[in-house]
Amino acid sequence: MTTKLFGTKVPRVEDDRLLRGQGRYVGDVFSGQDALHAAVLRSPHAHARILDIDVEPVLDVEGVVAVYTYDDLEDAMGEPLPLLIPHPTLTHGRTQYALAKDEVNYAGEAVAFVVATDRYVAEDAVARIRVRYEPLPAVVGIAASRAAEHLVHDDVPGNVGARMEQHNGDAPAEIAKAPHTLTLDLDVERSACTPLEGRGVAARWDPDQQRLQVWSSTQTATGVRAAVAAKLGLDLRAVDVITPDVGGGFGVKINHPWPEELLVPLAAMRLGRPVSYVEDRREHFVASAHERAQVQHIEVGFDDEGRLLGLDVMFWHDHGAYTPYGLIVPIITSTQLLGPYKPRAYRVVFESIYTNTVIVTPYRGAGRPQGVYAMERTMDAIAAYLGKDRTEVRAVNFIQPDEFPYEHGLVFQDGRPLTYDSGDYPASLEKIKQLVGWDEFPQYRKEMAAQGRRVGIGLACYVEGTGVGPYEGAHVHIETSGKVKVATGLTSQGQGHQTVFAQLVADELGVRFEDVEVVTGDTRRMPYAVGTFASRAAVMSGSAIHLAAKRAKEKALRIAAEALEADVDDLEITDGVVSVKGAPGASISLGTVAVLSNPLRYAFDEASKSATQFAVGDPDKPPVAPGEEPGLEGKDFYSPERSTFASGMHAVIVETDPDTAEITILKYAVVHDCGHLINPMIVEGQIHGGVAQGVGGALYERMVYDENGQLQNASFMDFLMPYVSEVPETIDIDHLETPSPLNPLGIKGAGEAGVIPSAALFASAIEDAEGIEITAMPISPSDLFTLREEHR
Q: Where is this region: Disordered (predicted)?
């Protein structure tokens, strides 16, 4: 019998196939076929003029089929790549060309594109291309950019792409008259997504059908489709974009189009053969996207209890050489910085500035880790100044449960008012204190000290805007077999969409979970969509799928009511069978209802015999009712009035080695509120993965450039990532459910939650263990060792 699946730990349907090595990624699309392969010549300079490109040495290489430079790009392909999210304050937005024109602005920028019979030949050919450069001074780092002794772009004064201010109240005035004030300067360094699978794209052109098929490892199939159509001068309907299995996205794959997503289809059309490109790991480091780098200056005024009277924040955001994704990251920092707190007055100003480094796009958390770092470090500083417990200072500043919806008087990243929909922050604080043993920690510290061991405890709170619009859609089709096919346009990168979406459909339709199949990221199945980012999949596509399934159910019950000569209100669906309540013999399967929904002239099989013109329907009525389509399907779209706001609190106990300064995690606890939980196991899996990335971002991962703009650690030999030995073996998780009133399921997003508070959390715990102020993250053992020496 069908049972309700919403809120149940249903095992992921994706895992068996993926764990058995049966995944199908971009690199597998043309496997075994006579496809061509591409390689990219990338600039060795961070900043230089291109004087000449000589491709002659390549043209006679056996196996080389084509070589492209900027001069080979025509019409829209010769124009800069799109600035995806314009903003009024982005006064000096700049984007690169698919292949560099006249100048390169970061080491790794695409200069030439070679297509050959295999990747080895293409790589060898790339090495033979001769380019004469005139090196220019490189601007590396926020300090150099602000100094503006040299410019990244000659037409961008001071290297400032944007300056934005938001405020609610008069923060400087409140600070000036506050009983107590503090000033903090905080740094966060660059990091990178580094997913398991790098970027990749494959394309095939059908000259007879005049149709282009593109496979991309992307977070937005419909976005890539629109960009490819626009740049290649094709009708939108002539382009299909399919997202196969994706080995992680984490934000880097939301940017579109990457140069290769245009160059590969262009080559496929010109050459009349399938073309494939998959970046190698070094290319991902030097040519994809980074994030996190910000310098933050905070001034705060507060009373004797630690209440925030005025908060004034200025920060500088390093957006790299170009701004294809606009100001989303710093806007999120500036608005999400407030977390669960309600300062009397708040002002934030940021400058988004150019450097001769890899571009910046959102990385899991997308500006929130920096904002939480600023706010939570401020809370810790206030507590230390007043000699109060860190939880007490937070508690007196919380928005209270009866104050929702809570308006901050700011504009969020979706262009809508920053209005929190629901939450209970005092309850979360009590849960996290119990989970980590906050009140018992002083005794634990004494016991560890007696053994010569040094431990510290940290806490960090956050609020995460999720379910960002503008919309997502879904199509639900009940087939004559009784199976249910579901399509939604956003893509999957391992989140478990095929499982949670099937749970929603099985519940709404009353069918077996095993009979529901979900397809994502295929424009042939759902051409209208936005993408997977900002913890929006469950809220947006989940709501759309729920609504579409509801439509399909309503139609199924209408048709079944006619067939069973019953009232719709007397029907129920269980295990895919529609029956009359209280009348066991009066029933009809959904598969048969699907047959009846599509009156046919011809009988193709046994099932279709039931739907021919002499077998079905009232002779006095038209076979298909006015305004209704044949088939048992439901289609709907969900567009929210504004974002939902999830929240959470993390706590950690760390040990710092007195000799080596190594940092060991002894206990990690999470309390999370994403409204109603569709699948608690998948939510917890998202938290586990996020915590692992957060540990990396706080203790290990940083992108190190030299003064010439050369990335010094562009490999996993040098770029440190946490292994399983560095990630907490056990993470204690508790859930709080405050439903969102903004969508039919009462849910909020969860995908980024685990990573958001990590920098602030570890800084708090390490500072507690060492008694040394922590103002820059990430912090490695060598950093801590240096801080100790300076402190001495």
A: 613-634
Q: What is the mean pLDDT of residues 74-84?
A: 97
Residues in Cβ contact with 557 at an 8 Å cutoff, skipping those fewer than 6 apart: 568, 571, 573, 578
Are 105 and 152 in contact, with CB atoms under 8 Å apart? yes
Q: Which residues of 41-50 are buried (b: 16+ CB within 10 A; e: fewer)?
A: bbbebbbbeb
> What is the pLDDT at residue 1?
45
Report residue 293 as tokens.
């780098």
DSSP state string for 405-460: SEEEEEE-TTSSEEEE----HHHHHHHHHHHHTTTTHHHHHHHHHHTT--EEEEEE
In the block, tokens 């504004």 appear at 642
Give me the residues paired with residue 420 across strands.
Answer: 406
Instruction: Quick: pLDDT tens for 501-553.
Output: 999 999 999 999 999 999 999 999 999 999 999 999 999 999 999 999 999 99
pLDDT score of 657 more than 70: yes
Whole-prediction pTM: 0.95
Q: What would the mean pLDDT of 87-103 be, rounded to a whole number? A: 98
In the chain, the N- to C-terminal Cα span, in Å, equals 69
- Specify the pairing of strand 776-777 against strand 732-735: unpaired
Burial class of residue 138 (count of CB atoms within 10 Å of its CB; 0-12, 13-18, 19+): buried
Nearest 5°: phi and psi at 548? Answer: -65, -40
- How many CA atoms lie less than 13 Å away from 320 in the CB half-sphere? 33
* Positions of E strands within 7-63: 36-42, 48-54
pLDDT tens digits along 587-618: 999 999 999 988 876 877 877 777 776 776 66
Which DSSP category does 522 fall into? B
- Domains by residue range for the chain, with CATH: 17-136+199-246+253-287 (3.90.1170.50), 361-468+642-791 (3.30.365.10), 470-638 (3.30.365.10)
